[in-house]
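Good morning C.,

I know you're traveling, so I'll keep this short. The sequence:
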Amino acid sequence: MSSKSNIKHKPSSPTKAELADRFFLYEEAVQCVEAEIDIIDSLFEKLKGRQASTLREDFCATANTSCEWVKRRDTNTAICFDIDQVVLDWSQKNKIEKLTTEQSSRIKLIKENVLNAKNDPVDIVLAMNFSYWVFKERKLMIEYLKKVRNSLVDDGIFFSDAYGGYEAFQELKEKTKVKPDNDSPVNDRFTYIWDQHKYDPITGSAINHIHFKFKDGSKIKKAFTYEWRVWTLPELLEMLSEAGFKSTVYWEQADEDGDGNGEFLPQTEGEADAGWIAYIVSQK
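The tokens, ready to paste straight into the viewer:
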């Protein structure tokens, strides 16, 4: 009879969570850069009567949006700012190096605080996925917005987004099942979990997490964590005005079931939905 010490155990296979890349998961679950660039590109041309070519992406992370931008036209350029060297290195390896040599020559990643960002004047500045809400104090937010305005050409536009509704001020979790596109580097379905972990009604500060769960039961907990202030649209519009912008809210329209349909139109009044997303288009 063999002793227990002689029994050989097969090494356990890695879990789906261990094999997954959190940045690819984020892009698959949260972003649709093709649709976003469609909106930005068409709105700029409609408002200014010309095509934009130069873009600055603040809080760029993987620079996925900027990569889509330089793919659109061979006249398009992008400069991308983020303070996280880890994500910039990931972007260089997994996004920039996947572009053609010509395309990659028109995009630049820079590790820098956006408050200290320096660039030649651009047509468009982007601050998407509520990233600029990291500025929790009014004074600091206005300082940022003024610097953005100064970085634009005379007819430039600052595009940002916002979310709200009464659910925005609640502590809750929202689960979404994600089926990756056929050409996605993510090979299997997964669940995206948006975790509004903590909200302070006195300061407006929030702590939010993103988790991912897989079919084998494994999870990536706190794949991403965000600490920001949940600003309201009136507050944002007032600060943008104080910074010198003329801003318009583009409100997401609803389908026949009352869900967002991805179409955004200018509105001066919105609906008191439980949750909504809007673009803010701010002209210099």
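Safe travels,
E.
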